[in-house]
Amino acid sequence: MIAMVDCNSFYASCEQVFRPDLWGKPVVVLSNNDGCIIAANKEAKAMTHIAMFEPMFKIKAQLIKNKVTFFSSNYTLYGEMSQRVMNILETFSPNVEVYSIDEAFIDVTGIVHTSLKQYATLIKDTIVTHTGVPVGVGIAPTKVLAKLANKISKKVEKFNYVCVIDTDEKRIKALKWAQTKDVWGLGKKHQARLKNIGVFTAYEFTQLPLAWVRKEMTVVGERLWRELRGESCIEFQTMPKSKKAIGTSKSFGKKLEDLPRIEEACAYYISEVAEVLRAQKSCATYIQVYVTTNRYSNADKQYSNSCTITIPVPTNNTFILTQHARKALQRIYTPGYRYKKVGVNLTGLIPQQYVQGNLFQSPALYDKRLMNVIDALNHKFGKATVGSALVGTRVEQWELVKKDRSNRYTTQWGELLELKNK
DNA sequence: TCTGGGGTCCTAGGACCC
DNA sequence: TCTGGGGTCCTAGGACCC
Predict the structure, then answer these.
(1) Which residues are within 7 Å of strand B by their Cβ atom?
(2) Do A106 and A218 reside in the same domain of the chain?
(3) How many domains does chain A have?
């Protein structure tokens, strides 16, 4: 049996932990640049019918009218709170698969317990007691069914955030309850196609001939079909696999026209991804840089382009990566446009001990010690304390807008929660 | 004026090899 | 006139996830 634990509107919950005055009140969290909604708690959803990813400018007035509190995103805080939740889960089972920042699968096979329901309730209560973050727990024989159980635990009130599917009868009941949109892995496109052939519930989906599912929805669809019928075919992954690609791209706080500012942003993103690359002890073979204008803007001329460069000897050295990225950027940069975004991608990642030199260049040409020192300094004194001069010092010209960010309560001495004596 | 960012997996098709 | 059969590797694009 597999348990799926998923935090309730995680980002909003993290904010509320440190703001008791907001308990029971509507809260939303905004994306980078405060562009759109990425999390909303129950109260905010009930009050305003907001959809996720709704652009902020469309609903700001409505939020203010309804006294909804909004926060810029504070990933430092959410990342650290996530770590706390995951640490607790690991006390419940040695086999925990962290699936995303706010959810995890737990292998509960062989765990000694009186009943699965009591066990799930214990997990739920422990997490909220120790971290303040509320969660839902679903337990079922396969991952897809556990996801479904989790959804039911939250959406059907009488379950009160705990749902166990451990008999065939309960499984069928759950499948008949679930619309296709409630199934993990059935996205918009598949939902529409299933609707066309008269399939609306998860149960109806499982009654389709396997051959049709395989042909129309590939092996991915077949796995869903089997998992929903109780046959486990998505592997449990306790050890996180190393990443196959590492990239970053962020919209600028304001639009940029000149190459130098874009180069600075690009160099900064390289320093970010290179650090992630070194942390997983890999080197990159290819580097891709892309730029784009604002596709929503009718007033602006549109342009987007990308350039991929093969690095002669794969590396994770920030300075070498920066040089290549700069070359790539210069190839695609065209004057006369208002750029909204630059992005970088590192691919062809290989373990650093397998890097092969070539006839002209040895893989050991660059000293790793410098990178180690840079990583250590930035870890100790904060992000971007030292780095490439190309990043410049005018970060504010392209940096993200985060107007309403809360304190980084758990990672910065200067931003600790203060208690006042009334 | 303002519309996120970071990923994975799968397939088809092209280019190439012997 | 007849024009093989078995592969690999890479990329782009689609679909999905949170």
Answers:
(1) A 31-33, 35-36, 38, 52-53, 55-57, 218-220, 241, 243-251, 254-255, 276, 294, 296-297, 299, 340-341, 343, 400
(2) yes
(3) 3
| Whole-number pLDDT of residue A365 | 58
In the numeric block, which tokens belong to residue A394? 């005018």
Picking from A193, A228, A263, the residue at the C-terminal end of a domain is: A228
DSSP A37-49: EEEE-HHHHHHH-
> Does any strand C atom come closer than 7 Å to the Cβ of A97?
no
Say whether both A83 and A215 belong to one domain: yes
Worst-scoring range by mean pLDDT, A139-143, A185-189, A226-230, A400-404? A400-404
Asked whether A139 and A1 are in contact (CB, 8 A), the reply is yes
pLDDT of residue A394: 65
At A153 the pLDDT is 97
Range of the domain at A277: 246-397
Q: How far is CA A28 from CA A18, A121, A134, A389, in A?
A: 15, 27, 16, 37
**Model confidence pLDDT, tens digit, residues A258-310:** 888 889 889 988 998 999 899 888 888 888 888 888 877 777 888 888 888 88
- Nucleotide nearest A345 (Cα, C1'): B6
Residues A44 and A149 in one domain: no
